[in-house]
Fold Translation initiation factor IF-2.
Amino acid sequence: VTALIKKLFLAGKMVNVNSELPFDEASEIALEYNCIAEEEEKVDVIEELLKEDEEDEKDMVPRPPVVCVMGHVDHGKTSLLDAIRQTKVTSGEAGGITQAIGASVVDVNGQTITFLDTPGHEAFTAMRMRGAQSTDIAILVVAADDGVMPQTIEAINHAKAAGIEIIVAINKIDKESANIERVKQELTEYELIPEDWGGSTIFCPVSAHTKEGIDNLLEMILLTADVLELKANPNRKARGIVIEAELDKGRGPVATMLVQKGTLHVGDYIAVGASHGKVRAMTNSRGERVTEALPSTPVQIQGLNTVPDAGEIFMAVDNEKEARTISETYISQGKEKLLADTKQRMSLDDLYSQ
Ligand code: GTP
Ligand code: MG
């Protein structure tokens, strides 16, 4: 060390034992001592997270479609899902307003569909931006008595930015003031043109109240999914996206995550943005305990050290050390950078300005 400091000092560099040298300079000096310097490989966590790793076609197996239900406030998204699931989520909501993204898995004639209900748009924007591949199909719910509204347009922009298929569900057709033709007309402005008008968008008139048209809507979803030939490799480490997360008084941080690739198991170590942990317990969308989750499956997990953000990408890793290193690097590299990167890649502003 003394020799090096002296050498650098004579070359006009004031350094001490804690100084860092640029790699080029260090390797030049190393050569003078007959050493070859090797640059330490820095794991760029952010690159790693955004990287779409190549998958071998032979490992891919069909997976269920992930469908998000979007649209203007009160147009009946949750009611429509209730009708599909034959449940009553809306009645349990504060003021009937959805405040989080609910995930549910529905069985339709032996075929599975994963639905994500969406509230207003904030959580969803983050999710859309980083999870371009998180959903395959968007159901755009437009109330037949209200027509295209600001959040309808926003939802269209989100779906287009993410490059996913849009199926239009014209809801509340049971209402006297319903005007299906007007909704169709209004949507033509956004390049959503019904098939019977020479376009290629599927329009399904439905009523969440009378259940009219629901079967047809489900059929259209499955048809669309068929064409997409959705596949994933279940035999690899899990990777996916956080749908929602919160701090539970008794259970600590709980996160609802959508597994997109691989299989997530109880006992797996995971890194999720700035959080990490070991999957201690997992419940499916019906609240049942499960030990593993295949691609396209939403699960709620416990075992993270902190509450991750919605839209964050999670990855299963080999051990605790790796999980911790990734989350620590993520923190030190700055979440802002990741956000900036992603925003740059798929900026909604770009879309609006086109
Ligand atoms: P947010 O999640 O807050 O954006 O609302 P939402 O789109 O989920 O709407 P929600 O399902 O909560 O329904 C809003 C209101 O519309 C409720 O009062 C529903 O009862 C009513 N509604 C939903 N679907 C129908 C329908 O098909 N017919 C009629 N008549 N009313 C409906
Ligand atoms: Mg709702």
The mean pLDDT is 84. The CA atoms of residues 234 and 262 lie 4 Å apart. The radius of gyration is 25 Å. The first strand starts at residue 61 and ends at 62.
